[in-house]
Design a protein that fits this description.
The N and C termini lie far apart (about 85 Å). The protein is of the alpha/beta class. The strands form 2 sheets. It has a 5-stranded mixed β-sheet, sandwiched between helices. The chain is extended.
Length: about 375
């Protein structure tokens, strides 16, 4: 009980005194009363009375607390030029992420601040206006074992194409659906659009996935929608997708109901589609939306994929494994024209076990301390004599 009372008394002692208390305490002291009497009467300290007496000029306003905000900016704070750079990039791309913004500033403007400093500036200027919802329990994610080999598991889901994308001449009740498949190991994605999300279209999409990837998976993971599964207690016939999986010797893994996070890769893919594609799209028919994919299609309906790594696609794992093997066995490793900040390519240097490392880049990198020879010059000028 004594501890609680002591803590309460300490917290009360730090409460600010009211303006009237300050005013009448100073008046009483200036009228000739002793400081000890005034402090005892108004429950204040001698230090507070002395401080108020020095500020008092006969008005109550003189006893108000002044702002503690500094009159000049901190010497290490962002300059006006740096703030202009930040606002210019945000104005050009209102959906730019923190990492993109920081890297562009560093690469194009010579920005030397820490990403956390940039985040604080973005919070201060109101770039992140998130709703703070209290009283909700936060889900603690568990470790997820992502396959490391191609063809182990596919995630498949269906997304309703937002009605805001439809042209005005389309009927109001006309709907379109995007089927999405992602290989968990390579993160390679395949999408196709339909006018209905039915079991027949699900089977058709699965065959299109077989043609696109060039192999069949050991496992297909979906949610419990009627386009993927039926309640076998009520339906006597087997679902077409289940029949396909039996015929092709594929395990159909159905996630727990109402847990879309278990299909996290394809769910995040759908969110990115909303932010980067459907927010800026208008279409007039199913053929129109298929043509807007920007990727050429074969006569059979499959996608003709170029031999390059597209945005959000995974790297070729066999190729990565060969690169790691070559780097591990190399006697001399020359790295040029890269700042070594983009992963996973930047992490390949960690597999080098030799003692002859050469770095060629105009700017400093985080791996300069490991290099035996560093050339801060354009790679074209350095290698031109060897051409």
């Amino acid at each position: 009980m004594n501890i609680i009372y002591e803590n309460q008394r300490k917290s009360e002692s730090y409460l600010p005194h009211e303006l009237n208390t300050r005013y009448y305490a100073v008046l009483s002291y200036r009228n000739g009363n002793k400081a000890t009497y005034v402090c005892r009467k108004y429950h204040i300290s001698k230090a507070s009375l002395s401080r108020w007496n020095r500020k008092f000029d006969g008005t109550k306003e003189s006893l108000k607390d002044k702002s503690h905000k500094p009159l000049t900016p901190h010497p290490n704070s962002h300059t006006e030029l740096e703030l202009k750079w930040i606002n210019d990039y945000i104005r050009r791309n209102t959906h730019i992420t923190l990492c993109e913004l920081w890297y562009k500033l560093k690469l194009n403007k010579g920005y030397t601040r820490h990403p956390v400093s940039l985040y604080r500036v973005l919070k201060r200027i109101g770039y992140y206006n998130e709703i703070n919802i209290k009283g909700t329990s936060k889900y603690v994610p568990k470790k997820y074992d992502t396959p490391k080999e191609l063809g182990k598991k596919w995630q498949i889901d269906v997304k309703f194409v937002p009605k805001e994308c439809k042209a005005d001449n389309l009927p109001f009740d006309k709907k379109y659906y995007q089927y999405t498949c992602i290989d968990e190991a390579s993160r390679e994605r395949f999408i196709y659009h339909y006018e209905e999300h039915t079991p027949a279209n699900t089977v058709d999409f699965a065959y299109r996935c077989f043609l696109f990837y060039g192999y069949k998976p050991e496992e297909i993971q979906t949610d419990n929608g009627t386009e993927f599964t039926w309640n076998q207690d009520k339906m006597k016939t087997i679902h077409p997708l289940q029949q396909l999986c039996i015929n092709e010797n594929i395990y159909h893994h159905k996630i727990r109901p109402r847990t879309p996070r278990h299909n996290g890769k394809v769910e995040r893919s759908h969110r990115n589609d909303n932010e980067r594609f459907y927010n800026y799209l208008k279409f007039y028919s199913l053929e129109d939306i298929l043509a807007m994919d920007g990727v050429p299609h074969c006569e059979c309906g499959g996608i003709i994929k170029p031999d390059v790594v597209l945005y959000e696609e995974g790297l070729d794992m066999p190729l990565m494994e060969r690169a790691i093997s070559y780097i591990r066995d190399a006697d001399l490793l020359i790295i040029g024209g890269t700042s070594l900040v983009v992963y996973p390519a930047a992490g390949l240097i960690d597999y080098y076990q030799g003692d002859k490392l050469v770095l060629i880049n105009k700017d400093k990198t985080s791996k300069d301390n490991r290099a035996n020879l560093i050339l801060h010059e354009p790679i074209g000028e350095v290698l031109k004599p060897l051409a």
